[in-house]
Write a structure and sequence with these properties.
The complex is a heterodimer of chains A (116) and B (107).
Chain A lengths: L3 E4 L2 E4 L5 E7 L4 E9 L6 E7 L5 E2 L8 E7 L2 E6 L8 E9 L6 E3 L3 E5 L1
Parallel strand pairs in A: 2-11
Antiparallel strand pairs in A: 1-3, 3-8, 4-5, 4-9, 5-6, 7-8, 9-10, 9-11
Chain B lengths: L2 E3 L4 E5 L4 E3 L2 E3 L5 E7 L6 E5 L10 E5 L4 E6 L8 E8 L10 E6 L1
Parallel strand pairs in B: 2-10
Antiparallel strand pairs in B: 1-4, 3-8, 5-6, 5-9, 7-8, 9-10
Classes of the chains: A mainly beta (116), B mainly beta (107).
Chain lengths: 116, 107
Amino acid sequence: GAVVSQHPSWVICKSGTSVKIECRSLDFQATTMFWYRQFPKQSLMLMATSNEGSKATYEQGVEKDKFLINHASLTLSTLTVTSAHPEDSSFYICSVELAGGTDTQYFGPGTRLTVL
Amino acid sequence: AQRVTQPEKLLSVFKGAPVELKCNYSYSGSPELFWYVQYSRQRLQLLLRHISRESIKGFTADLNKGETSFHLKKPFAQEEDSAMYYCAPDNNNDMRFGAGTRLTVKP
């Protein structure tokens, strides 16, 4: 199956700083990437759909100016949490979908963000 | 290392037949277990989670700690159950996804 990496795997930052999380598809080109977040003891929540070369589509209630998504190439999407606050502490997971609309998603290992 | 395995990439059954999608995990501690489903051209959605012990769309999943399995079952499959299914153990907010099983229910 496809391999998806995320970097960093965990990050601790001070309140007010910005944090960038990378999602890479290592062995195939992904036109579509998804960003999810998961709060403790809760299920995954879709934040946005990232399409290469175009603006991301954000889910209702997700602030696009807070969570900046850039999908500049077919193998890399980045999520930047701007001016992070403790309530942004969460587990962020990306997934990629193979070109051709197979509906198969490949998930990254996730990034744990802790904002102090 | 924490690992989740869905041994079947593809599973095909006839309508009305029982179906079981396998999931095995290798985790320290006691993870919470989820099944997610993605229907064609739709977004990923939660199907069920172990802790709630609910039956959703006729699906159930039993946690077997001895075998470290969390297989998803349905006694009578329907065509609308055709989808991708992902098993996802969550150990203290560290969730990992299986590779997924594509279920096809034939008429």
